[in-house]
Structures are given as structure tokens and as C-alpha cells.
Amino acid sequence: MNIGDAAKASGVSAKMIRHYESVGLFPEAVRTESGYRQYTEKEVSTLRFVRQSRDLGFSIDQIRQLLGLWQDRKRPSRQVRALALAHIEELDEKLEELQAMKATLEHLVHCCHGDDRPDCPIIDSLAQERSELERRPVGATGRSRRGMNGLRAGRGGRATD
């Protein structure tokens, strides 16, 4: 089947198939004499595997590892489990960061009158220069766990100073 058919069958766009080929995640397709890519059902299955892995938020490098494990029928499942657990930890960290951002925005929205006056704590906060301490990454992810301008999520979903 051609790239359009493979894209429809796998749920991966033709553009992404080309991208996966270019980064070495997916082998370059066999081409016809006229230069068109040709895919087999096995390759479409691999594309589905990649799509479902991406849907779960795995990175390209993690998918590369998962593909290797999937193709190795003698793999120990503990390796797959360890990779999935590491990804869960990453997702937990991202979730924590998103919750802190949400709490900061909720606090700023709560402080904004939302009327005809020009003063706005949201704009003021966005315009403030952050201190050097706040710019420094914190935690294992290398990202700050604080919201904007040093506000951090407190209990009850509100940001605190």
C-alpha cells in the first residue's frame, strides 16, 4: 500500500510517517520504480504501535526502546514495566507542574477585577522580571515547580506567596 493508505490504516499522518523515517524510528519504505513508498501490513502494525505509544505520551526515544522490546520475543517484561513506570513518574511531574500553573492562574484571575479599569494583576505578573532564584531549575526534571513570579501552589488549589 502507498503512504496515504498506510496513513489511513494506521492513524498516523503521511507527514509523521516521513518524520519517523527521517529520525530512524521507522525504517525507510521500499519504493516503487517511480519512487512511491510502499508499506506492508507488518509496517502498518508498527505504525499503529508507534501511534498508540505517542497517544500515551511516550517520547521518540522511549518508543524506540519499546519497539526494540516489542520485536524481541525473548524480552523480560520487567524491562517494559520499568520503562512504563519511569514514564508514569515523568507524567506525575508534568501533572504537578500543570497543577501549579493552574493554581497560579486561578489566584491571578481571582485578584483581577475584570472591569473597565486598566490595572490588572495578570498583566502585572506577566510583565514582572523574575528573580534569579526563581529562574533556577528545581527538582529532577530541571524545571521550576513554582508558578509565575515565585507563586507556588498551596493547599486548596490557590497559589500562595
Description:
The protein has 161 residues and is mostly helical. The protein has seven helices and four strands, in the order ααββαααααββ. It has helices spanning 3-10, 14-22, 41-55, 60-71, 77-111, 121-127, 132-135, and strands at residues 30-31, 37-38, 152-153, 159-160. Strand 1 and strand 2 (37-38) form a beta hairpin. Helix 1 (3-10) packs across helix 3 (41-55). The chain starts with a helix and ends with a strand.
Features:
single chain; 161 residues; mainly alpha; two-stranded antiparallel ribbon; 7 helices; elongated
Task: Give a quick precis of the structure.
The chain is mostly helical and 161 residues long. The protein has helices spanning 3-10, 14-22, 41-55, 60-71, 77-111, 121-127, 132-135, and strands at residues 30-31, 37-38, 152-153, 159-160. It is built from 7 helices and 4 strands; from the N terminus they run ααββαααααββ.
As a percent range, the share of helical residues equals 55-70%
State the end-to-end distance.
Answer: 59 Å
**What's the order of the H and E elements?**
HHEEHHHHHEE
Q: In DSSP terms, counting alpha (H) and pi (I) runs of 4 or more, how many helices? A: 7
Total beta-strand segments:
4
Which stretches are poorly predicted, pLDDT < 50 over at least 5 residues?
136-150, 152-161
Layout of helices and strands:
Layout: H1 3-10, H2 14-22, E1 30-31, E2 37-38, H3 41-55, H4 60-71, H5 77-111, H6 121-127, H7 132-135, E3 152-153, E4 159-160
Antiparallel strand pairs: 1-2, 3-4
